[in-house]
UniProtKB/TrEMBL annotation:
Entry keyword annotation includes Zinc: no
Keywords from the named record: Repeat, Signal, TPR repeat
Signal peptide: 1-23
Gene3D superfamilies on file: Tetratricopeptide repeat domain (1.25.40.10)
Domain of life per record: Bacteria
Name of protein: Tetratricopeptide repeat protein
Entry-linked Pfam families: TPR_16, TPR_19
SMART domains per UniProt: TPR (SM00028)
TPR repeats: 138-171
Database matches in InterPro entries: CellSynth/LPSAsmb/PSIAsmb, TPR-like_helical_dom_sf, TPR_rpt, UCP035836
Native organism: Jiella flava
Length: 267
């Protein structure tokens, strides 16, 4: 998540969680082409449009040459999602799932693609199908939790995040997902606590830092939010993020709309 204005802020917190949550799976199962893994979301965020399109074309050509190859299909679908082409990513994963109907990694990536495309019930059932009770995967617990949060089932989601942390203690992506879950129910102090903990861990990345800055800003501490964001952004970008946050929060009924949404989900 490079800037707040690219998808963070009160009403967009659900979308932010969707990206952040499912990323915890995608970073682990993108597969590879000639031993070269798909670029990370952070790397893609820094690419100019022309370079990103070149990466998509490169993976697309490899996929066309061997559409049934698991690693190629997973990598191509992941890159398409990073480029915002969720419908095409889902179409690719549908073909990969047909070729590998019982593969756990494929089912997990298919569930991620379904969630990105907005089919949450099917995404949930696909992720659950990929899980094995006798040998549970913490990444799947985290991905399932992210989907449940989007469905308004935050209590169930947090149970799964904590199961993931029992298997993989202090994982930054799971801690971040847990933090963003509290954003969705307006418990900003708890959200800040988990996001700060996530950022302290090895592997705490740009998305976590920007999520933390968002949560601090939502509590009205704009100078602190700007300081957090500016640790890796240019001063102009960091200032623009906080200015946008301040503007959005000043709009009438911002908080009441969020609370109403929370009430409906719990009702």
């Amino acid at each position: 998540m490079r800037h707040f204005r690219h998808g963070a802020l009160v009403a967009a917190a659900l979308a932010l969680l969707a990206v952040q949550g499912c990323a915890s799976v995608s970073r682990e199962i993108t597969g590879s082409i000639s031993r070269s893994p798909a670029p990370s979301a952070r790397t893609v965020a820094a690419m100019p449009a022309s370079q990103l399109q070149g990466v998509v074309r490169s993976y697309g050509e490899a996929y066309q040459n061997n559409p049934k190859d698991k690693g190629t299909g997973l990598s191509y679908a992941a890159v398409l999602q990073m480029a915002g082409r969720n419908d095409q990513s889902l179409a690719v994963m549908q073909q990969v799932a047909i070729a590998h109907p019982k593969d756990r990694d494929v089912l997990a990536a298919y569930g991620k693609a379904l969630a990105a495309a907005g089919d949450l019930p099917k995404a949930l059932s696909t992720i659950q199908r990929a899980q094995t009770p006798d040998n549970p995967d913490w990444r799947l617990f985290s991905a399932e939790g992210a989907i449940l949060d989007q469905m308004g089932k935050s209590d169930d989601a947090r149970t799964l995040y904590r199961k993931a942390l029992e298997i993989q203690p202090n994982d930054p992506t799971v801690l971040s997902n847990l933090g963003m879950s509290y954003v969705l129910t307006n418990d900003l102090p708890s959200a800040e606590k988990y996001l700060r903990e996530a950022l302290k861990q090895p592997g705490g990345d740009s998305r976590i830092r920007q999520n933390l800055a968002l949560v601090v800003g939502l509590q009205g501490r704009f100078a602190e939010a700007q300081k957090i964001a500016s640790a890796e952004l240019s001063p102009d970008d960091a200032e623009a993020n906080v200015a946008y946050l301040r503007k959005m929060l000043s709009q009438q009924n911002t908080w009441s709309k969020l609370r109403q949404s929370d009430t409906k989900r719990r009702g």
